[in-house]
Amino acid sequence: MTVTPLLRLALAAAFFALAMPAPAAVTGKTAGNAAYKAGDYATALRELLPEAMSGNSDAQAKVGTLYLDGKGTAKDYAQAGKWFTAAAKAGNRQAQRKLGEMYRDGLGLPKDDAKALYWYRLAAEQGDAPSQYNVGLFLMEGRGGRKDVAQALKLFARAVDGGNMSAALRLGEIYADGEGVTADLHQASIWYERAALDGSATAQQKLGALYRDGTGVPADPRKAFSLFRQSAEAGNVWGQYYLGGMYLEGSGTPRDYDIARQWFAKAASQGSAAAMTAIGSMYRDAKGGRRDYKSAMEWYLRAASAKNWTAAYNIGTLYRCGWGVEEDFAQAMAWFRKGADNGHARSMFGIATLHRRGEGVMTNAINARDWYQKAYALGLQSAKPWATTPIAHWGTLGRKRGCMMKFPDD
């Protein structure tokens, strides 16, 4: 038989195919990683343990995670700490971060902020964004070491660049509140926007408040409304409360008392005392239905029990004015006192008015002036005339009862 070049090539290919070893079965780390990714954690643990025992830091970190979370096995913090420590010492940044969390929270290891910070720092130096964020948190508070706001800001910014939007939200809060820096609402808005665009409901409601009030950014009720709606629909309690307020005031959207009440109710169901107070005031002021002082009182009492001092002031006003209850100046004073004792300026105004008018107490202009001045010092502008006008000239300010007004100031 003549061996043609084509036949010779085919024979050679067959020879090499026979000589090549058969592919190895998928075992060990490869099978373990595949099972881990597929959510088959029992198989993952079985396959990864030998690799972890042989010193593979990736396998050690995964095994530690399985023990930490109780996936594929019973939750075992001691085992988790053991494997994370081995992997962390080998330089695995995920394990370093997890070990930091365990020391921070005292999970199977003694709670130790210094050790938590140590491991977080190692992971952060390797570019781990969650660890950069956590180191920033520690430095802002001086946990585990000295406080260092400047370094914290740098780490938060790096974490944001690494995709950690919790760091963007925190930067917004720092600049909004002036935590260790000069307050800068425009700078706050920039960071809030980055987090809001990533879907942070908290950032959405905080940015919305800036656009609503025109602080740090130009006032834009429609944009505020849109941000509040996104936040509210994601279940954020403040987003729900603020959205209710937009419908109540007709700001950024047509006024709709029914929808306002619905959003306030959603927020109230999550424990928002501010929303409870808002519902009470809607009943008091006949917004969206008939005036109902009884229902107003019920909502105010719920809010006051949750330490909302505006609600306490409103209860005092109901008693002072005899709205839905018998006029009772002693009860009015008691409720105003609850608010005043907790720094509520309008409650201080209420006490001042009772002293000035001699309602339930002896008329005492000096006491009244002192309370007006306290209220004004806290920023209540309606207290200014009484706080700054000499007592001898108070007659020029009038003696209106105030209870005929929508929200009495006097």
Describe this entry's structure for a reader.
The chain is an all-alpha fold and 410 residues long. It contains 22 helices and no strands. Helices cover 67% and strands 0% of the residues. Residues 9-28 have low confidence and may be disordered.
User: For the residues shown, what is the average pLDDT?
Assistant: 92
What top-tier CATH class of the domain at 306-410 fits best? Mainly Alpha
> What profile does the largest beta sheet have?
none
Outline the low-pLDDT stretches: 9-28
- Molecular shape: elongated
Return the CATH architecture of the domain at 306-410: Alpha Horseshoe
Which structural class matches the secondary elements? mainly alpha
Name of the CATH homologous superfamily of the domain at 306-410 = Tetratricopeptide repeat domain
* N-to-C CA distance: 120 Å
Work out the number of β strands.
0
Beta-strand share of residues? under 5%
CATH topology of the domain at 306-410: Serine Threonine Protein Phosphatase 5, Tetratricopeptide repeat
H/E order of the elements? HHHHHHHHHHHHHHHHHHHHHH
The radius of gyration computed from the alpha-carbon positions, rounded to a whole number of angstroms, is 32 Å
* Percent helix: 55-70%
- Summed up, the helix count is 22
